[in-house]
Amino acid sequence: MPPSGRKPKAAPSEPRRRLQSRLEFRATVDGAWYEARVAVQCGALRVMYEEFLEEQDEWYDLAALAASSVRDVAKLRARFRVPSTPLEDTQCCDLQAGARLCVSCLLDGGDLKFYDAVLDSVFPAAHEIVDGMERCACRFAVQWSDGPRAGSMEEVGIERVCCVQSSPVQDPVLIEFLDGVTKLAGDANRETVSQEICVAPVAEGGVHANVPPGFQWKFGSSE
């Protein structure tokens, strides 16, 4: 299940060096976006939510994904993206109607989650200078794309707004794992996702014949 927002991990006594690249991941249960890291362990893709307990990690088994359709693998791939960036106080004038945003949403019970929205319009306001820093006082009318308020409009302040990035995900572990699973699912060209997927041919030793070089050795089950 996705993080509830109520059980964050305790802050480490000393900062840890980040070894994996950060991603945003859209949880299946609530459709909200969370910062996450990925790793491949025991033949499965492990999605680790940042700042939340390990028991809330999600696992995606290699064998189960390989037995599914390419459409299912593509749906999983679409749930990852590069992290959205907070809208800076000096950037409000750069936003255009239709911009894709990721906006914080305070839910009943006090949970704060992030859902996608589309910018409808900006209501300009004079900026203030606080402690020598420019502070944006503009308001932003957004239409929620996802979440419990999907389809409705809301006016929000800049402190709630992040900008969705268009650059592609470049996490090498995630890309190699999903590309390999796509081949195992039987459609390397990704052109027939609406058709029934055939089982990939098996070569000597039980390894799929069309698997990428080294994939089974790196990601296959340890059995």
UniProtKB/TrEMBL annotation:
Superkingdom per UniProt: Eukaryota
Ranges of residues in domain SAWADEE: 21-162
Pfam families: SAWADEE (PF16719)
Leader sequence segment: none
Record-annotated membrane-spanning stretches: none
GO molecular-function terms, A-Z: chromatin binding
Entry protein name: SAWADEE domain-containing protein
Lineage: Eukaryota, Viridiplantae, Streptophyta, Embryophyta, Tracheophyta
